[in-house]
């Protein structure tokens, strides 16, 4: 599995979110979602294509490959778990929790994430 930078993970997450909303992602949609220039998206997509994480049709629709979708789902899950911990346990405001979760999701290990999930499950049973 290729090494994916936090910035590239953010692209994968955006493509996942846009695809889950219905139509496949397009460069314009990704740029709008991330608040960046279309040229930056096009450059990032080239790297993601080279890594085998996305495929792109000639007219611009962008799809996650199986590997890309798996990676995006892992990052998305990390974000959701971290956000829940920050909001539910630490009482961080939801907006701030989203920002913090986005920073943390890229560096948490699978083991630590599973421990956090177990903690949250026991916390919510109390």
Rg over C-alpha atoms, rounded to the nearest angstrom: 16 Å
How much of the residues is beta strand, in percent?
Answer: under 5%
Look at the helices and sheets and give the structural class.
mainly alpha
Order of helices and strands: HHHEEHHH
**N- to C-terminal distance:** 39 Å
Low-pLDDT stretches: none
Helix content: 55-70%
Largest sheet: number of strands, sense, barrel closure: 2 strands, antiparallel
The total count of strands amounts to 2
- In the sheet with the most strands, the strands line up as 1-2
The global form is elongated
Gist?
The protein is mainly alpha-helical and 126 residues long.
Characteristics of this structure?
5% strand, single chain, 2 strands, 126 residues, two-stranded antiparallel ribbon, mainly alpha
């Amino acid at each position: 599995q290729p090494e994916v930078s936090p910035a590239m993970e953010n692209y994968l997450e955006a493509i996942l979110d846009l695809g889950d909303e219905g139509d496949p992602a397009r460069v314009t949609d990704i740029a709008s979602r991330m608040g960046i220039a279309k040229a930056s998206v096009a450059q990032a997509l080239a790297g993601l294509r080279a890594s085998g994480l996305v495929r792109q049709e000639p007219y611009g629709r962008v799809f996650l490959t199986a590997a890309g979708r798996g990676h995006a789902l892992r990052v998305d899950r990390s974000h959701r778990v971290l956000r829940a911990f920050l909001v539910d346990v630490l009482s961080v405001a939801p907006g701030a929790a989203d920002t913090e979760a986005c920073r943390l999701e890229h560096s948490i290990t699978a083991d630590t994430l599973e421990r956090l999930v177990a903690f949250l499950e026991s916390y919510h049973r109390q």
